[in-house]
């Protein structure tokens, strides 16, 4: 790691870790949604909405700290990009749950559970990686694995689309379900954006 003569604002590390931990909470709510009947989904959506609001608060705290700090642990642009990408993940997960409730989806197509399992694993890896930003150590395996998971998510998404268009569902149901699986795919993409930003930071700091 590059040696620095100037002090750095270290609270960013704790805030990134808190943001990532909140994403784990969101991924658990997604998993809970899978096993819930229609009557329980609205309550899960409320808890997801609260988690998303907590994520917004964490993001705003990072931006506030960024605007008020003279010295930052790494480039300001990278701090902004990392915070924004973490926030995007929560936004997409909350949107997916909300759509399931709003569209009154009775049964999610087979394969959505695989999407959510990928997101859950990516959430765990991201939460484990954020504290390592302090030292920039043990991060390579993180971004490699998240990129692999995103590729896996792409394959699952394509299979889901093929399933939706195989004639089993009516046109309106296809539109509803496609929007849900597309948003879950966007969440997977956002995890990759986080990993790519972490890689960029690590390379600059090496």
From TrEMBL:
<dbReference type="Pfam" id="PF01865">
    <property type="entry name" value="PhoU_div"/>
</dbReference>
<protein>
    <submittedName>
        <fullName>DUF47 domain-containing protein</fullName>
    </submittedName>
</protein>
<comment type="similarity">
    <text>Belongs to the UPF0111 family.</text>
</comment>
<dbReference type="InterPro" id="IPR018445">
    <property type="entry name" value="Put_Phosphate_transp_reg"/>
</dbReference>
<dbReference type="InterPro" id="IPR038078">
    <property type="entry name" value="PhoU-like_sf"/>
</dbReference>
<dbReference type="InterPro" id="IPR052912">
    <property type="entry name" value="UPF0111_domain"/>
</dbReference>
